[in-house]
Design a protein that fits this description.
Elements: H1 3-22, H2 29-41, E1 45-48, H3 55-64, E2 66-67, E3 70-74, H4 81-85, E4 86-92, E5 98-104, E6 111-115, H5 122-125, H6 129-134, E7 136-139, E8 142-145, E9 151-156, H7 169-172, E10 177-180, H8 186-196, E11 208-209, H9 210-222, H10 227-238, H11 249-254, E12 255-257, H12 261-277, H13 285-296, E13 301-302, H14 304-308, H15 313-336
Helix pairs in contact: 1-2, 2-12, 10-12, 10-13, 10-15, 12-13, 13-15
């Protein structure tokens, strides 16, 4: 199969899967696209929004469109790590002999919905860390691989503070994207009422296998990135660090810690998927701009002044992108001279 044919196959599969999700989910086209981008990039996605906006429904609908094993964990303060990973249990056979057997937890699934992840204690939250990074978990000294592909979609409520535990920075960094789910417009709300109060719910068809997802992930890795696009991605991430000598003024004033190298990886991988979804076998600067906020908003920690002034991280990321683009453009002009 030619490269062009592979790209067109990806475009058709991406649009077909999105269409199945949109049978149930009204609006949120950008959120749906970014969730799919995260899946095909091989990362995990965190969705943040107030209750009732369809975060859980979106994830369940996506799972219904894939021929993959799905599991849901409802995070609560009394949830324990063993409830997620699994544990060894003693099993007695018919002849009276006993042996230890590992009982798998819900993490042994292809798509894992971690619902209201910030309601569990840090100890329980950290039970996902190894699985998210290494695609395996360690129990009683034995490493057990997770199914492939493995995709974590987590939700959290940003406004309710009682009984919640903010995710530590190390775990936030494991999420490829953090997406903010907004309240629907009135036209979308009307469509939600019409669609959800009828007797016949929409039927979602399974349109993609796990092998197809893995194959598309390999295709994503093959997409070339021009040097000036790569340089811009690096400049954007470096510009989030106040200690960098070329950091913009907004970063020096409001940022305490900037994004890790995973931020640059998220930018490039996400941009590759977006390019393929639009039928292009090359990454553009526009791809980076669109994916900058989802890739970096959870990787930037504001300082006291930034918190006190209520600085919007998304707007801050936009300013940083503009500054980095101007700097890379100037450097490129000097090089061409």
């Amino acid at each position: 199969m030619t490269q062009e044919a592979r790209v067109q196959e990806f475009v058709a599969a991406f649009e077909k899967l999105r269409a199945e999700v949109e049978k149930v989910i009204v609006g949120h086209r950008e959120i749906i696209d970014h969730v799919l981008v995260g899946m095909f990039a091989g990362g995990h996605v965190l969705l943040e929004g107030v209750p009732g906006l369809g975060k859980t429904l979106l994830i369940k609908t996506l799972a219904e469109g894939l021929e993959l094993k799905f599991a849901r964990i409802q995070f609560t303060p009394d949830l324990m790590p063993a409830d997620i990973i699994g544990t060894n249990v003693i099993v007695e056979e018919s002849d009276g002999r006993k042996h230890v057997q590992f009982q798998q937890g819900p993490i042994f699934a292809h798509i894992l919905l971690a619902d209201e992840i910030n309601r569990a204690t840090p100890k329980t939250q950290s039970a996902l860390l190894e699985g998210m990074q290494e695609a395996c978990v360690t129990v009683s000294g034995l490493s057990r691989p997770l199914p492939s592909p493995f995709f974590v979609l987590a939700t959290q409520n940003p406004i309710e503070m009682e009984g919640t535990y903010p995710l530590p920075e190390a775990q936030l960094d494991r999420f490829l994207f953090k997406l903010r789910v907004r309240y629907p417009a009135i036209e979308e709300l009307n469509a939600i009422i019409d669609r959800t109060t009828h007797a016949r719910p929409a039927t979602v068809e399974r349109v993609m296998t796990g092998a197809a997802v893995l194959g598309f992930r390999e295709l994503v890795r093959e997409v070339p990135v021009a040097s000036h696009v790569r340089d811009l991605a690096s400049a954007i991430v470096m510009a989030t660090h106040p200690a960098w000598e070329h950091a913009p003024e907004v970063t020096r004033r409001f940022v305490r810690y900037g994004a890790s190298p995973r931020g640059a990886q998220a930018l490039i991988l996400g941009a590759k998927v977006r390019a393929l979804a639009e039928g292009r076998y090359n990454v553009s600067v526009e791809d980076l701009k669109i994916l900058a906020a989802p890739s970096l908003r959870h990787r930037i920690i504001l300082n006291f002044e930034g918190e006190a002034e209520g600085v919007d991280v998304d707007r801050l990321v936009g300013d940083i992108v503009e500054s980095a683009e101007a700097r890379v453009g100037q450097a490129r002009e000097l090089f061409l001279r």
